[in-house]
Hints:
Blueprint: H1 10-16, E1 21-31, E2 36-45, H2 51-55, E3 61-73, E4 79-93, E5 98-104, E6 115-119, H3 129-135, E7 150-151, E8 154-155
Antiparallel strand pairs: 1-2, 1-6, 2-5, 3-4, 3-6, 4-5, 7-8
Amino acid sequence: HPANLPRVTSEMVRKVTPRLFVPGTMCGFRRSLHKQMMHTALVNIEGVRTQEAARWYLGKRVCWVHKGLRTKRGVKGKESKVRATWGRVMRIHGNSGIVRCKFSPNLPAHAIGSRIRVYMFPWNPKNTPACAKVQGEAPKARKLKPAPARIGGKKKAAGGSKKKAAPKKK
């Protein structure tokens, strides 16, 4: 009988609804000794501490949700100050599970230390190490170019395109 069933509340729905993203933190920008590359952000994903764990996130979408100064028309014509900057996980950075992400437009410097959402889509089975072992995929060997023929320690001219020098006159 429907009267005996518990009434569904918003708290119950929140507990059941799965989260579609993993939280992360924007650590900074990729950098060298003297300069930093603002087009590549470094993101530390919660629970990821190794390269193998970070490999699953390659190609996943990332989002930086922030508030702007003024209201703008957003989803379905509603006005809101909330904005989102989207990007993608490009590659692994180092050995501790940090990943490099590219955003469009680039993240500002005040985003350092803020929360980043790393979404679980798109899903690519090739990035999961377990699936690669099951499918029996082996890393593809690189094709090497044949070494050029050498005469007397110098490379041989290809196709004889060099003109021969005229004999010296005495």
